[in-house]
Amino acid sequence: MKLSALALPWFMATTTVTKQAALIAAQPTNLETLDEALLTDLLEQYATYEPTQCSPPEASTSFSFDWPGRNTASGFVPSAAVEELNFNAIMTHTDPADANRTWSIRIGKGGNMYSHFTPNMWGETIPPQKYYNNEAQFVDEVQQMVAVTRNLEIDGKPYFIHQAGAYRRDGSHTNTPFFSPSLAKFCAGNSCSFASWGTHAHVPTPYTSPIIYITRYTNCGNGVIEYTQMMHQGGVRSSKLPYVLEPNPSTGALNYANPASTSIQDVCPWNNAALQQATDRKVHQSGGYTTFVDDQLLLDQNNPQILPWCRKGSDPTCSNDGTCMVPSCTQSQIDNEGYRRIKLQVAANSSPSCKAHVGGPGLKCNLRASTGFGQSSPNLSGVPCRPWANIFFVRADDPSRFVEVSLIKHWSWSKSNKLVYFTVSQETTNVNAAISLVNSVFNNGGNSQVLNINIVNGAYQGLPANYNPGSFNAFTYVYGQGQEYSAAGGDILGFARRRMGATQAGAGTRDYTVFTINWYGSGAHLKSGETYINRGYYFNSNLGSVKTTAENLLTKTLADEFNELQYNPRTIDIWRSGDTFVAKSAATVGGDSTTCDSTATITCSGKSTPTRGYIAFFYVTCDSQTYFGPNPYHFTPSFGSRFPGHGSNSNPVRSYVCSGQSGRPKWKLMGFFNPNDTGCADLEDTPYQEDVCDAGYHPPTTSPTLTVSPSVSPSTSPPTTGPSISVAPSMSQAPSKSPTYQPTNPPTVSDKSSERYHDYVKMTSPPFSHLIFYSELFKTSRYYTACGGSSSYRCAGTANVAAINELHEVRCCADTNPGGWAQHSNCVAAGFNVWGRSDINGCHSNKSFDQANAICELVGARLCTKEELFADCTSITGCGFDHEMIWSSTVVSSPTSRPSVSPTKSPAKDPTSSPQSLPPVSSSPTASPTTSNPTVSAPTEMPSMSPSTSSVPSTIQQAQTSSHYYTACGAVHADCAGTATVAAIKELHEVRCCADTNPGGWAQHSNCVAAGFNVWGESDINGLCHSYKSFEEAKALCEIVVGARLCTKEELFADCSRGTGCGFDQEMIWSSTSPFSSTLENLALRASGGVASQSSTCHGGGAHRAIDGNTDGVWRHGSVQHTCGEANQWWKVTLDPSLDHTINRVIIYNRSDCCKNRLDTSELQILDDSGGMVSSQSITGSALVFTFDFDNVIGRSVRVWKAVTGAGSLNFAEVQVLGTSRTLTP
């Protein structure tokens, strides 16, 4: 197998890490300690981590980051120069007991394996790296992970984020290949770990990439490599390992001794969807491993006669090369309808004159009897899913002379020649030998008669003497049996799928059997801020030892999915001295302090793993320029947006270009930091210096000259004596004391997510290992508002930062005139071809961002950008909004730095007339307080810009009605009938509306009337269906757009909106009903003094999770408790012992991603101070939410008790005990 790797010039000898030399000019040096901390914690420090169970019998692993030169024995096609660009590391195992178990792998820049070489067996396992005019070297035909989504595609442009790199399709920009940047790497003992930033393959691309790939390779000895990843584009070299065997899923038998009953698997053409689907296999229905075997294996094929293609009788001259041919024809069509079949023949006194076709062993030879035949597609020996079904070209005049053909690529291609395109089995790696063989066998020189060639099937004719398939070479993938997925009863939604296929370009062009394992099916969504990890194995061995080795590894495979709350990170401190800084990681796992021997001070601190409120920060260099921060596209030429936003097909994203410079950017992962920390923000253009913390270090003494440059857009406001602080004039009447920078509970996203939630990606075929979606951490909760008109005496030129729940005015923009909209001359003069309007079915004041966005989208328009508002694109369009602050679509992607009295070194890229927000509040004091910043007074309950550590809004602690609402099934006849789910307001669900009077054309269902409701319902709102909307968006659609309202839960249950279209009868619909009482307090919360306990704890599901205020029932989100399934298991919350408690209601939020039946047959009990039971109710069924009412029961604790064994563990998300408390009676 071949892997591609990119070499950075630092070195690690066998099991010993040497000091890292300079990576690249202006890049950080000596980062092995930081890289080790990041990679170790990312791969190991999460709640459900299971340590590796493999270790070689002795430390027999060597590795190096130095380019070792080209491996000439592997048969590589590409140039050594291209491979050297991609090389990252080489890892070698020399087996002391069995030389056949020795291997060497090469790792590419992206951390993917591009070469697997077995010097004593078949040699190179991975196919030759040549395809499509050299544009895909080391990008295809490698082992890698690929992230895919169809939801974000712009004008059909594929959204494929490769671990390996980009195709060379962007003109001069990709003359030098661009491989996914290496962010960190570390090797020690018998393992090597890598982090890379995934890059879009199909360049130029309109998309940005939010993915970090993490991969680890561990030498287990005995020829086995453990890989911590999940592959998408993997596979083997089909010319070396053509046969595929898999064990019987029921018996585990792996048969190969008898050719009539081998465990052979069909390998269909990769791009034939119908055939592919027929041979795909769900992993939990498989034997858990797949082995590829060399071409000595014999099969009893019994194949049908293979015949060449035919030319249609309707086009005897083949006037159209592309349509005149058909795969087959009957003798009757030949006799009566003018069809003609290709015949193989060599002309008199001639030779086949074979030549290589597209390099490699593929040939094109003059073997047709005549010209006049057009294009025929690849034909895998006539049997589409059996490329091993070899045939023979045999001389008609001498049957003892023949060649064995492994693949027919084209029987014909052009009517102007007699060429047949094919591959011979005898010489699969040496094209010159293959040419010589065919020219010799079919040489017809000196013969005045034509030489006819017969086509003969290749079934074996009995077993040869000493046939011993157990000694044949085999390469095996072990991926497990998918028990972790919900389809097999596990916790990860969806299932794992095995898919493989033969590349139809043929051996010599793409000598490749593609092999993939996909996370697939309903629920296979990796949301932002989550991590998916998969561990499997591959090994080289003889066929006889495959079954024993593979079965031993099956129990060691794993798959898991979790979020940032489940990590246990260590601290990473940024130490600054003058205009230089260094990153230092805590020495121990979970450590929270670092040391520095110089006078440097800590300017900001971060984490070694994804953490709620912390996002990935990078150190990026372009020639002599440097950047430290969360935007990996900092030096990328402008693409009309800011990460994580996207560009367009006309304004593509070129991460591989340094804007205005000739070099390429270089990236390093520095850790995960709070984007609101001004100490970090102040380091944006500060260079990294490795020795900042060395004793005696002094920063450079040469001070740069500070030049005050004029603003690019001079302010029209009167001059001020100090920095101007603009406060949004429309503040919330009761701002939260702890609003968060981002949603505290990530929305649940389905596979048709609204494009505005661009950072939520469904992986339609997402086969990746340990990859991190960190775009959730970028997900904005703040947008700019801008003044409605440049002539305004009140706000001209002002842009304020606003949280999405603030209330502001709405104006809309459109790129084409919807009819009757205005186009302001100032707008056109500023370069915008935009029309604006304020009256959108009325004027809209005091709306949240979601409401504003919905209002504009409903009329086929959009919110204006900040720049369009500044350019008067909606000025004078009515509603009196010229003097108001208008919602814009411009994201506040990073906080503004504190206003500085000192001039900046260079003008800001986007100068404004004044700072655009209040000074951010740091989550912790800086090590060296400064006095240069002005003091700014703010209201005592000013919203904090620091992220909350709570997993849900604080309002849940008092059971208010503003944070969660019920969603209910769309119809009583649906699969979800009678189901109501409690949903956070930021979750995305379908929208239907109700009205108390008929707005015109709405439906009134008879079931609704029978239930006592005089209500009309509708799904089609202004001609559009509305899927995956937040509660605020749904509410706005019904109330603002059509003057109606959301239906209540009871109305939805009564079919009041059933059958109103959009296919929503089977979906969960937003209701206006909240599950929370406005008067009862949740007594169970930890913050209210509740203490949880349980009979046992498995999988890290502690009892406290059920009183953390988070009703999210998805296991991987980290808020579901889990007992171990023993007899008489229980969970209990003891209420605050200092108070008397009256209990009126208990609500249990069940686990939602699977296993909802685990609460069935249990009992809810209220206990007194002595533990005696004072009241109880049975829990039956598998509802998502159980509600139990009690009549003012006095109790000290609430317990869920399950006496039944064999019915699973206790497994739920939250228990709310609603009631009242008073001071304990003496």
Q: In short, what is this structure?
A:
With 1226 residues, this protein is mainly beta.
Topology (SSEs and partners):
Blueprint: E1 12-13, E2 16-17, H1 32-44, E3 61-64, H2 80-86, E4 87-93, E5 103-108, E6 113-118, E7 123-124, E8 146-148, E9 160-162, E10 182-188, E11 191-197, E12 199-200, E13 211-221, E14 224-228, E15 234-236, E16 243-245, H3 273-279, E17 281-282, E18 289-293, E19 310-311, E20 325-326, H4 331-336, E21 340-341, E22 345-346, E23 355-356, E24 363-366, E25 391-395, E26 402-410, E27 419-424, H5 431-441, E28 451-457, E29 473-478, E30 495-502, E31 513-520, E32 525-526, E33 530-542, H6 546-554, E34 558-563, E35 571-577, E36 580-585, E37 601-607, E38 615-622, E39 625-629, E40 666-673, H7 678-681, E41 761-762, E42 770-773, E43 782-787, E44 799-803, E45 812-814, H8 825-829, E46 835-837, H9 849-857, E47 862-863, H10 866-870, E48 885-891, E49 964-969, E50 980-984, E51 993-995, H11 1006-1010, E52 1016-1018, H12 1031-1041, E53 1045-1046, H13 1049-1053, E54 1068-1070, E55 1081-1082, E56 1091-1094, E57 1129-1134, E58 1139-1150, E59 1162-1167, E60 1173-1179, E61 1185-1194, E62 1197-1202, E63 1212-1223
Antiparallel strand pairs: 1-2, 3-4, 4-5, 5-6, 6-7, 8-9, 9-12, 10-11, 11-13, 13-14, 13-42, 14-33, 15-31, 16-18, 17-30, 18-29, 19-20, 19-21, 22-28, 23-24, 24-27, 25-26, 25-28, 26-27, 29-33, 30-31, 32-41, 33-34, 33-42, 35-36, 35-37, 37-40, 38-39, 38-40, 43-44, 43-48, 45-46, 45-47, 49-50, 49-54, ...
Helix pairs in contact: 9-12
